[in-house]
Amino acid sequence: MLQIEDVLRDRGSRYAVSGGPVQGRAWAEAFLADLKRVKKFAKATHNTWACVFSDAGPMKNDDGEAGAGAVILKMLERAGLTDHIVVVTRWYGGVHLGGDRFAHVVSCARAYLDAFQGAGAAR
Question: Which site from 26, 56, 72, 107 is most exposed, i.e. has the minimal number of CB atoms within 10 Å?
Fold first, then answer.
């Protein structure tokens, strides 16, 4: 699992991003269960995720952050990354962010994709 904590903060909300390889829905569910074993991720307001399975196509879950899963999914599809889950975690800070929340999801997903590609290049 590649995890980047404290990617950004805005008006009290904090964001992190996590991800790793998955092969099917059961693996994705196991990945999410592992993530939520860490108390702070279990208590997060939103754990929004998406992945594109090579055999079953795209899946996403907004976890109450309407539209955020679609943003992550679109970025994964553009990057051509399959059988890999990306989870953007938000701890709500008490202030509604409006459309800025989508920009923050993009920033988190981009940070993950950049780190993942950098880790692959370093191998």
Answer: 26
Q: pLDDT digits over 33-55, tens only?
A: 999 999 999 999 999 999 999 99
Q: What value does the mean pLDDT take over residues 118-123?
A: 57
Cβ-based burial of 54 (10 A; exposed 0-12, middle 13-18, buried ≥19): exposed
User: 34 vs 18, 75, 96, CA distance in Å?
Assistant: 11, 23, 29
Strand partners, 20: 85
Letter string b/e over residues 67-83, b meaning 16 or more CB atoms within 10 A of that residue's CB: ebbbbbbebbeebebbb
Tokens of 80: 């051509």
CA distance 61 to 69: 5
CB atoms within 10 A of CB 97: 16
Tell me if the pTM is above 0.90. Answer: yes
State mean pLDDT over 77-87: 96
